[in-house]
């Protein structure tokens, strides 16, 4: 295929979000904005204990309240076709769907009340006044016997081992053994989890914010005993997901069951504090790293052991040890994950699952080791730069990490960094420190399908089922499609986000643009090929007989490759052929061959400046520079915005975010956005993102990797290292707080 057909002038442009106006004017409807006729409002009662049983609920009092229509508890929840105690699919969680009276975590749904109004349902839920028999909750990593992850299932990461780790460690000239801890974090998308559910016979129509529509249809089909086609999910807009909407949660399913039981549509919107429990979270970790280096400061072995909290009824172990794979050149590596059962909601994927927590530990450990080796932290990383993937020796499909290091360091002024800590102060006499970290995230692809339709008026409609989480996929995916079709962006309409469209796969894993983009690209090429066939076979077309010489699509014209004067517009070709449209289809996925040949990752380098008043010791990130390489940047504005968001989450991880559990009750004491700290504008000063050019001919047809999760990785470590450089204190627990620095 000629390059002009593949990529025109749309990709690479910093186009603003196409759905931006609809969003800021309120024209974009989110799931909870839907109000079908006969709607009932659902409110659920949340368990106030973390472990035990519900012994009594005053359902009579709730039912007696005016406007309350129904109360569903474990005693009257209709039977499900599929047992919720099983996992219907590889990517599904076990869910307490009022299966019994047991409480597994605080904020678990223990009853759901339907009302004619939200107020009636809210009051009904309050009147239930549940009583419990409670047991002491397990809330810490030492509260139960750990188990080793065997791998082989979602949530149970594979261990990895290559080379002789023990030999590498005994041969090391210098060793670092350090233990790092990361806290539990809860995703808080601006749009809380919600659902509007209505049944039409045995068809279930859902307005449901969800990152994995087709998978979710299958899970629900299992629970309700209907074919997956009977589940219709419409979720054109999402107000953020961050992984928390990748999987269904129990309250959403309960609302669907309640709608069927009541024979009326039901709306449920989780309250902000209800997002601390049933909707997944980043599980806390304790990571032990053992790294050895030889006399030349080259790694001899890496040993990364992660202990992570999971729930009592399912497994999701934060795959933090994965961060040590694929980045630094070490002849031997062992990564292990172990889990501990706590009485908490099951953790789940949260932006950069594994790498965010793991790279925080790894990048701090690398900084500690660089100091032991007497080397600048950047020099130390360059000395351990992997030219091929460690352990497999596969070449990288592309890797501009060295350029990221150089450009980022140059921009930041890294060369002026004194090697020892506590050397720099600013004009206010505040301590200043500089630190860095490497960013790494795999560049996976899932599977997506798409359709491209060239219409009689010469415009096109492109469609794929997957959602836009808010990051701008509506725009960047349309840019890719427009180039494949040889059309200006304004002549390409884009539909996405419903299960009625071709299965668009999952919006997650930093793979959405790569996967859905590849599918749209293939669909566009297919449509153009079909259009070209029509023209080439038509004696009345200027393109008659172009056949082998081929044509390119540009600006709504098909143009003969060998003679620019021979051209015809899409509209004319269709009109003369008497066609209302031409449709192409495409699939995006990576062949296992491609994965066998190349290792694929996005990379970056993050440089941080931290400033602290020596008497107050509150760390402030006064400067952050990130340089990232992620293949083709489809839309620099949106990509940089994603990376910036990731880096801000890095600030959050390093200095703010922590769900604090009360060990007596198992409840989260700061379980709302008043107490759960995240950075505000005042916490983010000077933040700069650079993207480094990277041509990747192997990662997929469109050369796109991913940027969604990359920005967090590297940033946390860079900030921790900058705090050390400013204060001389090595803090190995995140978030780093004032009291740690006293
Ligand atoms: Mo992401 S944690 O795959 O939404």
From TrEMBL:
Entries under InterPro entries matching the protein: Ald_Oxase/Xan_DH_a/b (IPR000674), Ald_Oxase/Xan_DH_a/b_sf (IPR036856), Ald_Oxase/xanthine_DH-like (IPR016208), AldOxase/xan_DH_MoCoBD1 (IPR008274), AldOxase/xan_DH_MoCoBD2 (IPR046867), AldOxase/xan_DH_Mopterin-bd_sf (IPR037165)
Residue ranges occupied by any Aldehyde oxidase/xanthine dehydrogenase a/b hammerhead domain in the UniProt entry: 25-136
Coiled coil: none
Protein name: Xanthine dehydrogenase YagR molybdenum-binding subunit
Superkingdom assignment: Bacteria
GO molecular function: iron ion binding; oxidoreductase activity
